Amino acid sequence: MKNTIAVLAASSFLMFTACKKNEVKNDLTKTEVNTPQPFTTDSVTINDSIKVSDSLTLKYTSKLLVFPTITDKKLLDSIYFSNKDVKDYSKEGLKAYLEEEKNKYYNSIKNDSKDWMSGMTYSQQWYTNSAMNLKSDTNDYLHIQYVGSSYEGGAHDNYGFSERVFDLKNNKKVELKDITSMPEKKLEALLMKNINTIHSGTTGSEGEIKNSEMLLVEVIPVTSNFYFDEKNLYFHYSPYEIAAFAAGDIIIPISWQELEGTLDPKFKERMKIK
């Protein structure tokens, strides 16, 4: 009887120990599953052309960034704000979307131009180009530049830029109010003051032409087209937005020193601004 009790006790101990080991193993498995994945990026690109008549060739180029580790749908919707019909943010889904957009572009030009296409007297290449470019990933702030350009006849092509910064800690697009509380009128004054800080490179018969000499507006508006680095807040303006086409796109910096006293404390600490 004593031997039987001893065997039962030993069996119970072994079962208890095995259960404990399984619990530890399960806990380790749970820990491994919950470990955040490192931030990674990828991209998909379509580069194609088609000849639609003896005189007209169409070219379609587009690049979308892919973010395998971003799962928040609202954040993804904001990142792909200009691609409203995207339903699948995987690499395969984005490639299928671009193929569909390419075919839409080809068909729209064919249908809109068929009545006068035969009247073209010289060979032309029309195109549409769009790209998402990863500019920086600092302190969990993701800066993406969106570029678009096109040519469909006329004196010159058209192009434009859109800058967006995303807060990966809080899964949202960064707004100006998240950075500074400076009133709009004061920001406008700083934009006008700094208009010539970054030269456009435009020249005339007498040499370089300043950005301020090509302005089409009396007040430079505060735009949501901004980004930042460790030194400045930058506002980016596309051609014709505030100046003549010859000026190209204009970038105006405002230093953190000029915004002293209005910076959001959490933003200032996160960006390590002195």
Notes on the protein architecture:
The protein has 274 residues and is an alpha+beta fold. 29% of the residues lie in helices and 28% in strands. It has 5 helices and 11 strands. The chain has a 6-stranded mixed β-sheet. The protein is flat and about 65 Å long. The protein starts with a helix and ends with a helix.
Task: Describe what is shown at a glance.
The chain is an alpha+beta fold. Helix content is 29%, strand content 28%. The strands form 3 sheets. Strands 1-2-3-4-5-6 form a 6-stranded mixed beta sheet. Strands 9-10-11 form a 3-stranded antiparallel beta sheet, with no helix packed on it.
Largest sheet, in brief, is: 6 strands, mixed
Low-confidence stretches: 1-19
Spatial order of strands in the largest sheet: 1-2-3-4-5-6
Could you say which structural class the secondary elements and strand pairing correspond to?
alpha+beta
| Proportion of beta-strand residues | 25-35%
Q: Distance between termini?
A: 79 Å
| Overall spatial form | flat
The counted number of beta strands is 11
Task: Indicate the radius of gyration in whole angstroms.
Answer: 28 Å
Q: Give helix % range.
A: 25-40%
Q: How many individual helices? A: 5
Mean pLDDT: 88
List the secondary-structure elements in sequence, H or E: HEEHHEEEEHEEEEEH
